[in-house]
Specification:
mainly alpha, 12 helices
Length: 295
Amino acid sequence: MFGFEDMLHNEFTELPFKIMFYVIVFLFGICIGSFLNVVIYRLPDPNSPSILGIGQTKEDKEKASHCMTCGAKIRPIDLIPVFSWIMLRGKCHSCGSKISPRYPIVESLNGLLYVLTFYVLDINVKSIITCVVMSLLICIAFIDWDTKEIFISMIAVIFVLTIPLHLLHSLEYEDVTLKSRIIGAFIISVPFFIIGEVSRPIIKKKFGEDFRAIELGDTYLMFAAGAFLGTQAVIVSTFIGIMVAAVGGIIVKRVTKDSKFAFGPFLAIGIAVGSLWGNQIAQWYLSIPERLSGQ
């Protein structure tokens, strides 16, 4: 679309151009990742300064740019995504207190996902929209891990992005039909909702706690993901998410001795994989009987 299709996958495209493009995409991705750290840190806290700086006083801005241990003001050179943390060796320049490695992890993860998205999908509208979704998934995963809460506003953005993805991408070719998106929105979210409703009174009766085996946030997330990905890819995403959650749950229980853990981060991993390879994995799986019969 717009004359850029298959540019990265074209054998005639020069290697230096590809390398330069991926480097630029990565650098842009880690800059966006730096903003994601702000979202992850501030959004769950109603008393934190505005994410976009709207309505902030000078005092608010100063408070938001200081070391949490010694109060030293953060220098502009310390705000370079990933590289500042490496140069500072993960410590405050003033007092030497440790800076969480989560900051460069989030930044690097966002940059790498951007590069991977363009590597797999090439340069097109779908790649750009998918990058936005990847960033939202990172925020959803880390916030849910910290607070066991998924913000509906982020899920709504993923759902809304389905509209331009479907309309603009279908100008070139229709890889996911409207019917597939509608079915995809309900094929996982409805079972998740039923499991949540059925499990809630059972858990309350047995453990005395009022929560669901699958929370509504996870249900809404898969509704939006199903609309975004379509039927086949969202099924693959769910399967991957459940498998990763099974392994992650065992690790969490051994470390924390608590069987409760956030499901959203694992679903986010599945959705990210499904966004890039979901349909291909589904087609590969469905072709197994045919390939076996051919042998």
